[in-house]
Design a protein that fits this description.
Its main location: membrane. The chain is an alpha+beta fold. Helix content is about 65%, strand content about 5%. It is globular.
């Protein structure tokens, strides 16, 4: 290999930012340049030499001693995971983890991953029948997906490393990004939709379901957006508006269930249950599992219920009461401003703006409190944890965001003020979301520009100690990126936005259009952040959007009540029913509201939550399993006879 080529390749590594905070865009550019600068022969030789991709990196803390690092390496090697330990300095100690394809397949068998078989059905992966899972055009290396390999390694080794994590020896554990795969997510003006399947292959089913739901919801918003425009110009009867939104919300949510069932079947998560693996943070005593007989962590449910009903929900009630008080206090301030400065004063806008800002602040603070309370309850699985956290959050968010709107509509009976208050709150809510979505990427770009001026050479001693300079550079930069927590806040934003769109649709025809425009940009920004701003998260398996589905359905039912109430407040409508039913005019509201609830129920029953092809595929898988069991029994019987 020519010396000039080696010098050219290493010169790209001769510059590095002074701080770990430099964003991933700059790091990706430099790492790709490094790979391209190496001659093809050297790149191929290096590839053949290792032949194993680095999936996970363990970063040791500054206080970790060399012996402790070596002990961790020995523990991991017991699981036949390939390791490379590099202790470069007191502050830089990395352990790179990889695995052979054969070992990954063994992990997949132990984890009971669901894979598609050559017969077309979805079955639990069996290491001893690999050929049954080799579809047309696949190799053995393709069975374990991009998102699954890091998780399989982490699930195998992490229980044995908990003591090192609690003692602060291990500072972080994360999977490395795959730069070549990330190119599939680069922004493309010609792309009309998000690559959901590619997102699933890389980030896992939990994150891909969020993007799938966002895409489906955004497309569904086209219909109320067009309806809102027509409603504004032609002033539709509010009974027609209420009926439209009942039909739209119900069909949207029922069709999403079908779409979600298709996703979860193809991704092998449709039959997940509450008996799945416990959360990492779950606490308990090791006892024999009543089903499998294996030693598992168990915690008495009575303590969880005691925490929920004696501590968590009383605290939630106090927070809800405080949020309602602050919402009502706004009207007292508005009345004082009106008396002091008159109706034409611009100061009348101030209480509404302050209230909208306080809503965002209270939401942020309560989210932290809800997470803390749910942690204390010690739920076993991630799905149970998410469900109880969302339940707490939705109780508060409905009061925090919409209590003042209900007060204006049904206590003050001021529909003009309702429209103004709703649009102001929605506008500020969208601005806060945009600030969060756009602010982080813009900050990353600024840091990237700054990084080009703040550079220094890599120490020559480090160059000789590391076995793979490109991998070291990647690990160094990604270890300084922020950790992606979950899709929790993203779903919350969508849920609150959905409430603003449907709860008072009768007086806010443009709310759906504003949500549509916001979501078109938001989902691309979310994908950009995941690929460029955060560490790559470990994939998490899930079969649906969990408690958020119930939250959206709750808002759709509340929308029927609120829009029927607004309809009944119209003077012409109310006078019509008073003349028609002099003694039971209020009963007409109840009848119309129940009629719409009945329509929602009929649509719900008419649309099955699983497509027919999914139901047939599940029945086929059950049939194949029962036939295989019968064949095994028959074979055992023949062996005994022989």
């Amino acid at each position: 290999m020519p010396q000039a080529q080696v010098t050219g390749a290493l010169s790209l590594l001769a510059k590095r930012p002074q701080s770990i905070i430099e964003n991933q865009i700059y790091r990706r550019q430099r790492s790709l340049e490094l790979i391209n600068a190496l001659p093809k022969e050297l790149h191929d030789d290096k590839k053949n030499e290792t032949n194993h991709k680095t999936y996970v990196v363990i970063v040791f803390s500054e206080k970790a001693k060399l012996q402790q690092c070596q002990d961790v390496e020995k523990v991991i090697q017991q699981f036949h995971v390939l390791t490379t330990l590099e202790v470069l300095s007191k502050t830089e100690k990395y352990l790179y983890l990889s695995a052979t394809t054969d070992n990954l397949l063994r992990f997949a068998d132990e984890s009971e991953l669901i894979k598609k078989t050559v017969t077309g059905s979805m079955q639990k992966f069996n290491y001893h029948s690999v050929e049954d899972f080799l579809l047309s055009g696949m190799t053995v290396n393709d069975i374990v997906r991009y998102c699954e390999a890091p998780v399989l390694i982490k699930d195998a080794i992490k229980p044995s490393l908990l003591s090192y994590i609690r003692n602060g020896v291990i500072e972080d554990l994360f999977p490395l990004h795959d730069y070549e795969y990330l190119e599939k997510f680069s922004f493309n003006w010609r792309r009309r939709s998000l690559p959901i399947e590619e997102i699933r292959n890389y980030f896992g089913s939990s994150i891909s379901l969020y993007f799938g739901f966002t895409l489906f919801y955004t497309k569904a918003l086209v219909f109320p957006s067009l309806f809102g425009l027509v409603q504004y110009y032609y002033s539709f009867n509010l009974s027609l508006v209420s009926s439209f939104y009942v039909i739209w919300t119900t069909i949207f949510l029922e069709l999403w269930k079908r779409k979600c069932a298709g996703y979860s079947y193809r991704w092998g998560t449709i039959e997940m249950t509450s008996l799945d693996k416990p959360r990492t943070a779950y606490k308990g005593e090791l006892k024999p599992d009543p089903i499998t007989g294996k030693l598992t962590l168990q915690y008495p449910m009575r303590y969880t219920y005691l925490q929920m009903y004696c501590i968590s929900y009383p605290v939630v009630f106090l927070c809800v009461t405080a949020a309602a008080y602050f919402a009502l206090y706004q009207f007292q301030i508005e009345a004082e401003v009106l008396n002091d400065f008159g109706e034409e004063s611009w100061l009348l806008y101030v209480p509404c703006i302050v209230q909208s800002v306080l809503i965002s602040i209270f939401s942020w603070a309560y989210e932290k409190l809800a997470t803390f309370l749910t942690e204390l309850e010690n739920h076993r699985t991630r799905s149970q944890y998410d469900r109880h956290r969302v339940n707490k959050l939705m109780i508060f968010e409905i009061v925090n965001n919409f209590f003042s709107l209900f007060y204006i509509a049904f206590v003050l009976h001021e529909l003009k003020q309702l429209k103004y208050q709703l649009m102001m709150q929605l506008l500020i809510f969208q601005l806060v979301c945009i600030a969060q979505e756009v602010g982080i990427p813009l900050l990353a770009v600024v840091k990237q520009k700054f990084a080009k001026f703040m550079q220094k050479e890599i120490d020559e001693a480090i160059k000789h100690q590391v076995s793979d300079l490109a991998r070291y550079e990647q690990c160094f930069f990604e270890s300084g990126l922020d950790k992606y927590q979950s899709t929790y806040e993203d779903y919350l934003q969508m849920c609150i936005q959905f409430g603003y769109v449907v709860l008072f649709a009768a007086v806010a025809p443009f709310a759906a259009l504003g949500a549509l425009i916001n979501n078109i940009f938001a989902m691309h920004i979310d994908l950009f952040k995941l690929c460029n701003i955060f560490k790559r998260p470990f994939a998490r398996r899930t079969k649906n959007i969990g408690a958020w589905q119930s939250a959206f359905e709750l808002l759709s039912v509340m929308a029927i009540l609120s829009n029927c109430g607004i309809l009944y407040l119209q003077p012409n409508i109310k006078n019509f029913f008073v003349n028609l039913f002099p003694n039971t005019s209020d009963l007409s509201f109840v009848l119309f509201e129940h009629l719409l609830l009945g329509l929602k129920f009929v649509i719900h029953k008419a649309i099955h939550e699983r497509p027919r092809w999914v139901r047939i595929a599940l029945l086929k898988a059950d049939y194949e399993s029962s036939q295989a069991y019968k064949n095994i029994k028959k074979l055992k019987a023949q062996v005994k006879i022989d």
